[in-house]
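Lab meeting, item 3. Inverse folding demo.
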């Protein structure tokens, strides 16, 4: 049986039968995508493929499945396919979803994949949102946030926002600030609060970090002084970061509170 025979057979089907076939095609496409997606995941784990490359393969698979599904549906309902096949996949996706915002997100998604301002498993801040990049899909970049939830950031927002990447040299270099009043000197803050807290923190969590936490004086104003702190955890280990960073802050502040009472 040739492709022409299949097309001819489909042309003879009544509308109700075509709807049933459409549902079968869409269900089959979903199953095929899940099977290949799982295969990509298992193969990536076996050969230790970079998560960003794995995400790129999954994105390509998704686009191919969408294009194939829409093309088959157009054929089934005797609609012209030349305009779709000859045009870009992005136009097809926009028409399929019926939204100009979708096409913008699709274009932005491919732009993010190609330019690579960040990669999957990088820890980033996009505008006011921050978290670990879990997936870059056609429409959204998914972040695993400090609230232990997944935030979907539209790709248009990604390319229109300032992006800060905390990840390089194989680990997350996370920086945060703490403020202190002028009640004691910088030297005493360091000697009695910051250094003891970092030393205690390092003894407790040495195995979870790649480097000892660092600190440096940031700025001073009429209202107080601020110090910046940096902690270092392995790339892709945002959950550890979300646990360690508040703990270190708490250790420093507790020692500061005790110092002010003496």
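The presenter then showed the designed sequence:
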């Amino acid at each position: 049986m040739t492709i022409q025979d299949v097309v001819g057979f489909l042309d003879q089907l009544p509308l109700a039968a075509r709807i049933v076939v459409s549902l079968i095609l869409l269900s089959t496409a979903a199953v095929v995508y899940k099977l290949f997606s799982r295969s990509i995941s298992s193969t990536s784990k076996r050969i230790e493929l970079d998560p960003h490359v794995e995400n790129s393969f999954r994105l390509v698979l998704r686009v191919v499945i969408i294009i194939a599904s829409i093309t088959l549906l157009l054929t089934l309902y005797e609609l012209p396919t030349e305009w779709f096949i000859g045009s870009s996949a992005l136009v097809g996706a926009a028409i399929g979803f019926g939204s100009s915002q979708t096409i913008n997100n699709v274009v932005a998604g491919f732009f993010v994949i190609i330019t690579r301002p960040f990669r999957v498993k990088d820890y980033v801040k996009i505008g006011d949102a921050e978290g670990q990049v879990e997936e870059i899909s056609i429409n959204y970049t998914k972040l695993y946030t400090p609230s232990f939830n997944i935030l979907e950031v539209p790709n248009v927002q990604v390319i229109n926002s300032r992006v800060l990447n905390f990840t390089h040299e194989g680990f997350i270099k996370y920086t945060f600030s703490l403020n202190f009043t002028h009640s004691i000197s910088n030297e005493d803050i360091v000697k009695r609060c910051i250094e003891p807290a970092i030393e205690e923190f390092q003894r407790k969590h040495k195995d979870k970090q790649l480097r000892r936490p660092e600190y440096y004086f940031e700025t001073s104003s009429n209202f107080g002084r601020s110090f910046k702190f940096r902690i270092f955890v392995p790339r892709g280990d945002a959950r550890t970061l979300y646990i360690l960073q508040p703990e270190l802050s708490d250790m420093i502040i507790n020692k500061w509170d005790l110092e002010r009472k003496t």
